[in-house]
Automatic annotation (TrEMBL):
Keyword annotations from UniProtKB, A to Z: Signal, WD repeat
WD-type repeats, residues: 194-235
PANTHER family per the UniProt record, alphabetical: WD REPEAT PROTEIN (AFU_ORTHOLOGUE AFUA_8G05640), WD REPEAT PROTEIN (AFU_ORTHOLOGUE AFUA_8G05640)-RELATED
Keyword Signal: yes
Protein name: Transducin/WD40 repeat-like superfamily protein
Signal peptide: 1-19
Stored InterPro entries: WD40_repeat_CS (IPR019775), WD40_rpt (IPR001680)
Taxonomy, superkingdom: Eukaryota
Pfam family, one: WD40
Length: 326
């Protein structure tokens, strides 16, 4: 399905890699978020959080504050907006076409303050939202234009990951529980539960058709669920050694990438009912995975002091032509 080439060094873990096009990749390198051009083969710093970060937007009611030396735990990039979360409960929002940081703040100050996951999505009305999932068992929603706090949903366990369905109506909530939840994305009300995993969950992804949800767990499996019937999972995809830390579908829904904490990324062919799989065997801890929007490339970040790199895998095409006689 894919072949590879090597580029640049990364050092952090979690979802710290996002591709906004085949030639534009955003990734963490030490205390910097870098933009890597796979076309020009060079990088450029877009955010440095080793030094104090001050918000450029200030207005009454906006809970924004300056931050210093943020250790980024997770990030997301979508439609010119980059959002990053920190190990001390920080949230940083930057418009990529503007200098400085638009919004930054500590959204929680508890002992379990780490921001485990961030997401940028459009709700059912088409408005852009930011969602942050934290170890304090809270999921917070912000307006992506004003950065105003809109909602806060509470759960019974630390939330490790959230993802919103393509239509913006459903929310998958996963964390320190063997049970995964489906909630209303607007109200946070739980509407269903997914039972089958044996340990804590760390990742999820929605198929572009909005009917299939993939969940990744510490039990080394990814389970696939039909959202119309949550009584049992459709399939169980097995990893080799570790928890399933990252899941990504291609925009056309034809492939699902599944990353373990280190050494292995699995690419499943969804059109074969996930029976066909390419295993990518690499060396080092995996900082993140991301398909390009055109589905032509898969990027894998490797976090290792010696072998740290950004791997680019390009999609292979097999064209068969029928000879015609005129």
């Amino acid at each position: 399905m894919f072949f590879s080439s090597v580029c640049i060094c990364i050092v952090q873990l979690r979802n710290l890699l996002w591709a906004t096009s085949k030639n534009d990749v955003y990734l963490m390198q030490n205390y910097s978020v870098m933009h890597w051009s796979s076309l020009l083969r060079r990088g450029k710093e877009v955010l440095n959080v080793a030094k104090p970060v001050a918000p450029t937007r200030q207005h009454p009611g906006l809970l924004s504050q300056s931050l210093s030396r943020v250790q980024i735990s997770t990030m997301a990039v979508k439609e010119n907006l980059m959002v990053a979360g920190g190990f001390q409960g920080e949230l940083i929002c930057k418009c990529l076409d503007q200098p400085g940081v638009a919004f930054c703040s500590k959204i929680t100050t508890g002992e379990n303050a780490i921001t485990n996951a961030v997401d940028v999505y459009r709700n059912h009305n088409g408005s852009m939202r930011i969602m942050a999932a934290n170890n304090d068992a809270q999921v917070r929603v912000f307006d992506a234009e004003t950065f105003a706090s809109l909602n806060c949903f509470s759960f019974d366990w630390s939330v490790n990951n959230t993802s919103v369905s393509p239509d913006g109506k459903l929310l998958a909530v996963l964390g320190d529980s063997a049970e995964c939840l489906i909630a209303d994305a607007n109200s946070g009300k739980v509407t269903g539960s997914l039972k089958g995993h044996l340990d804590y969950s760390f990742s999820s992804a929605w198929h572009p058709d909005g009917l299939i949800l993939a969940t990744g767990n510490q039990d080394t499996t990814c389970r696939l669920w039909d959202i119309r019937n949550l009584s049992q999972s459709l399939a169980v995809l097995k990893g080799n050694m570790g928890a399933i830390r990252a899941l990504k579908f291609t925009s056309d829904g034809k492939f699902l990438a599944m990353a373990e904490p280190a050494d292995f990324v699995h690419v499943f062919d969804t059109q074969s009912d996930y029976l066909k799989c390419q295993e990518i065997d690499l060396f080092g801890e995996i900082a993140g995975i991301s398909f390009s929007p055109d589905t032509e490339a898969l990027f894998v970040g490797v976090a290792d002091r010696t072998y740290g790199s950004l791997l680019e895998f390009n999609r292979r095409h097999y064209n068969f032509y029928l000879d015609s006689i005129f």
